[in-house]
## 1
Amino acid sequence: MTVRNQDRVPSSESDLERTLKDAPIVDLARVGIGSNAVFLATIQTEREQLRAIYKPARGERPLWDFPEGTLHRREVASFEVDRALGWGFLPVTVLRREAPLGRGSIQEFVEGPSPDQELDQDQLERQLRGLATLDVLVNNADRKSAHLLVDHSGRLKGIDHGVTFNVDFKLRTVLADLGGEEVPSIWLEQLRRLLSDRVAMSGLHARLGRLLAPEEIRAFERRGRRLLAEGHFPRLHPWYGRPFEL
């Protein structure tokens, strides 16, 4: 894997972004009963219908430690960081301003593997540590096991990144047992490349600036540099370092 220059986004991904942002939503179905409103959206294109996950800002439950009405933007910001690193762990996620329930995030639906598909467990273990690295960077306060998916190609995907980018240390993860373990060099090297690339970082700062507060962006960069200096996953409290529901 290499760091992907933002000016070289693959055309298929760029097309998908435009579709998620602008194509008509023809149906909505509520997904589960959680603390925030989540909908399965059916999007109509010229050739087909696509499924996507829509999280309207008006459906966000206020939290004491996050600014109100910002969770959908944090979903998009997490994707922007993942894309800047070139890792591809997060489905394409964009802001949508025109939608049945108003502005919110809308995310590519993750199609799972076929029932008889054989998965490469060693590869998934390596990817798990990459996704754990991303969680440290975005300060993910709610990494549940249900947020870890495998797509149709057998690749690990992470979803649900609304409670991220807090300035204070908030990392809570089902992967807490990785604490103290060395971060594999492949993820550290790609993080180092991004942080040392002024052009790439300038572009990322501009995109994050439309989604996050300035102090949250600075805290994100500090976490990245700290992770490079320390080289291992943070040790978490055995109780408070895990999400409330696994």
## 2
Amino acid sequence: MYMFKYVTKRLLLMLCTFFIIFTMCFVLIKMLPIPVNVLPGMDTEIAYRTLEGRGWITNIRPGANGVWEYDRVPIIIQYGNYLKRIVLDGDFGIATTLPGYATKDLWTEVFIPKLPPTVLINIYSTLIGVPIGLGLGILAALKKNKWQDQVINIFIILLISLPSIVLALLIQYLFCFKLHLFPISMETSNAYFTWPVFKSMLPAVFALCLGSIAGYARYTRAELSEVLTGEFMLLARTKGLTKSQAIARHAMRNSMVVIFPSILSEFISVLSGSLIIEKMFLINGVGGLYLSAITNTDYDAFMLLSGFYTLIGLTAGIVIDISYGIIDPRIRMGAK
């Protein structure tokens, strides 16, 4: 009962927070000049009428020297129409200035087709990074202050110190350019589960998961080292359990209360931090689309993608908090 009330409360707070952030983004973006994208061969009036149809401007009229004039629709009215289209029609707008996507529906023709590559490279990086990171962290904790621990700590410090952009450049230079083990950019095919496409994703996956491996290993080593020195571990040994049994049954379970939520948070941070990596390896995903929407001032695309990343971050906070109660039943989120 406590968990149900807690989750309900957090969901309501999440929706309120999302609405506030979404509103702030809309208001701030609408205070900027309105970009008018006139495609080759398109009548200028058509471009303005498209913006008028989206509810951005009104009272379009020809001005001096062939420059069209218009009046801005008040922001509050624009926002109301925008939310109405999203809720009632599922209309997130059309691309206006995105290169190659002008006049296309943002949700069905732009966003959805680009979502699979972004999700896949993050899933692959998690599947590779979690077992390696946990394994290194467990080994470092069990061999604390020995040469294995020292080597792993040096490895962790190097990966944490180097930005993911530098790691990506090293991977591109060494594995793609010098050794020719992988293509330098992702295949353009939509057959994501074929070997050529999967192989072309691996450089970006490695660039993303190396930092995650260091994070997992650091969290695991720190938490497991603390648990292994607990008094309950000595009690478990005095009851007749071997060292391996005590570690497997007690130490690992208690340390996972902190480690598992860190895995979820690390996955979200990787998903949010894959923007530059996608651009560097020419991944045809949401990250590159987001950067393109910013540089080309496509407001509807910016709002859709900002809402997407904001919702991911807020959802991650709830999932991480709930996971504490799932991992350790003694924890009751929301109980007094």
## 3
Amino acid sequence: MSEILSRPAAVAVFDAYGTLFDVHSAVMRHAERVGPDAAKLSDVWRAKQLEYTWVLSLTGRYEPFWELTVRALDYAFEVVSAADRTTRADLLAAYRSLSAYPEAAEVLEALRAQGIPTAILSNGDPGMLASAVGTSGMTGHLDAVLSVDAVKIFKTHPKAYDLVVAHFGVTGAEVIFVSSNRWDVAGAAAYGFSPVWVNRLGRPDEYPGLNPVAVIGDLRGLV
């Protein structure tokens, strides 16, 4: 058992996009058609998608994550004007069936073998999540898939993290929360979860005082 799991844990909860699923896999599947600026298009798409969630939450508004994903791609095409716009429909279809990281399924099963239920808590709306989980073959590896659509506000608002506590009937201290997004780790820390940061790209730390209990290079660091 890893040092992370030596702390009391009733449930292990994972962010979906960027943590279990590779958000850049949609563009990479069609990179040759998109053109030489494919990576830039993907970066702008992701950054704008997240920005929309933060702005809406701060203004007390909500729109389903899929609508924001579509809007963010259209914005990215405007910014990365050399990218081939005829790929738009294929990119959106690919986003609904993102590739899971290669170690994701085995890590989820290893946790469940230790008696720790696994779940997703995501900004994704239920349709998006059902598609991503189903097409990646992850359905049997998760005990729950929770969407912020139920409370109509995105992470890092406390109401989003409330969904985990309510669903599993646990305290925040009993939740190991795993995310590749440092801002999400900060939100989980503020809420009272034990957050683990999956820092695949070796990014510098930020958000002092809202720290992860551990930093790992990929999901295998959990087990």
## 4
Amino acid sequence: MCISSRRRVWYYHDVMRDLSRITMTMIKKVAAALLFLTTIWAGLHLLFREKGRASKPAIIAHRGAAGLAPENTLAAIRVGLAHHAPYIEIDVQRSADGVLVVIHDETVDRTSNGRGPVRDLPWAALSRLDAGVYFAPRFAGEPIPTLDSVLHYLQDKQATLVLELKDPHFYPGMSEEILSLLGRYRAEDRVVVISFDHAELAAFHRLAPAIPIGLACARPWPIPHIAPGQTVDVFWPGVFLDPTFVRRMHRRGYRVWVWTANAPLLLRWLCWLGVDGITTDHPERASGAASGAAT
């Protein structure tokens, strides 16, 4: 090898060695900063955590039990009940011809073998769709349920239905229709109505002040005013980002629910933070975490 070639090799090795040192130094600094911030964060949560709060939150089975069965189907609701979830959460929309149906997305594409917006499809078309096979072959043929069929199934069950009004701006008059259906099954005392739409939720509360409501929020600030004694339902990272959140909401007279938490360690941490309810795809994990945190 000629001298110039050797110099290039030595130069290359020197550069790579220097880059490696710089990289390792940066990694150590970032790790130290993260450790420092984590320590401060944990300390703030310890400082602001309410003492004496019940550490066994209510378990809300998300979309029935979406981690164990096809979401928003009677199969998922049965699984949620089998795991003794005291609350069963579902999403409600309306078909093109006015039938209240249980489905989350604006379209049927993700959770069925059909295509198109829910609000553009008549019930005759929705009822023929397979809403189970996407999850597992053993659920093939599971239909999209109506709210009527869910209320009928739950009328003799020991569970509270958490009913989310999905995109109510697409469905004028849906609150009145839901109230009528709840009245038919005398289910007013076995339901909580939630929504991300503050105006619709307030309108529903004016129509039926005795029915509990929950304001769903993607972030912990700002929280619009709702009636005292009701629920604020926030995406779970919110209670981590704001160590004062649970205490502040309780002081305002609200219950605090979080969505959607599934990891066992996360579930235990949320119990420790003193939240009042945890929405989860896995009620079997959440029940164990809540029981463990309470002991």
